[in-house]
Amino acid sequence: MLVDFSQASFWLALLSITFNPAAWNVAARQEHHTRWLTKLCGGAKQGCYAIAAAIFSMGLIRDALYGQALNDQPTASWLDNSLVRLVAGTLFFSGMTFVATSTYALGITGTFLGDYFGILMSERVTGFPFNVLDNPMYVGSTMSFLGTALWHAKPAGLLITAYVWLVYSVALQFEGPFTAMIYANASSKTKTQAVVNDDKKKMKKKKL
């Protein structure tokens, strides 16, 4: 048996993997529409830090559930060798590098949905790792899941990793267009305000 589907820990790991991005996307969208976290926390930045803490905490719980799921699953002898562990270590280290460097490049508010709180980036980040990958945090996280599965020689981990990528791919279909809409609306408002300011200046010149 490669995967023991009777283990509750396997399904709990999948549930956590599904719940986390769904929860933070719903919460952040509600924040964008109603400013509920901004009001609750006394400011947009405080609200963003609150959701960042929640996302980070949920990530730790997810990782713990994933680790338990792997412990409860059968080990495959064909994965249990030094070459696979070398690949696993490389994947895990590379994945964590992508996650850490993208967080550093974006900052806390840029990483944890600050644009949903009205905290917008002044310009697009184009340095490493964004000059290598479009979504380095999601790719890096998936690589870390895969590296962990290979290190422990667990076929169930490979299946869970495939599900992680599926969930992230679906999440990106919602996050990408919504984030683009936020910046497009902000750009439109800026242009409109610039036109209004220009008209005011012209009116003042006419009066003079």
Describe this protein's structure.
The chain has helices at residues 8-34, 36-41, 44-71, 82-111, 136-151, 155-207. The chain has one domain. The mean pLDDT is 91. The protein is elongated, with a radius of gyration of 22 Å. It contains 6 helices and no strands. The N and C termini lie far apart (87 Å). With 208 residues, it is an all-alpha fold. Helix 4 (82-111) runs antiparallel to helix 5 (136-151).
What is this structure, in a nutshell?
This is Phosphatidyl-N-methylethanolamine N-methyltransferase. With 208 residues, the chain is mostly helical.
Question: What attributes characterize this protein structure?
Answer:
0% strand, single chain, 208 residues, mainly alpha, 6 helices, Phosphatidyl-N-methylethanolamine N-methyltransferase
First and last CA, distance: 87 Å
Number of strands: 0
Give a quick account of the main beta sheet: strands, pairing sense, barrel closure.
Answer: none
The tally of structural domains comes to 1
**What is the oligomer described by this structure?**
single chain
Q: Helix/strand/pairing class, anyone?
A: mainly alpha
Order of helices and strands: HHHHHH
Share of residues in helices: over 70%
Strand content: under 5%
Q: How many helices does DSSP assign? A: 6
Rg over CA atoms, rounded to whole Å, is: 22 Å
What is the overall silhouette? elongated
Low-confidence stretches are none
Mean pLDDT: 91
Protein name: Phosphatidyl-N-methylethanolamine N-methyltransferase
Organism: Coemansia aciculifera
List the helices and strands and how they pair.
Elements: H1 8-34, H2 36-41, H3 44-71, H4 82-111, H5 136-151, H6 155-207
Helix pairs in contact: 1-3, 1-6, 4-5, 5-6
Organism: Coemansia aciculifera
Protein name: Phosphatidyl-N-methylethanolamine N-methyltransferase
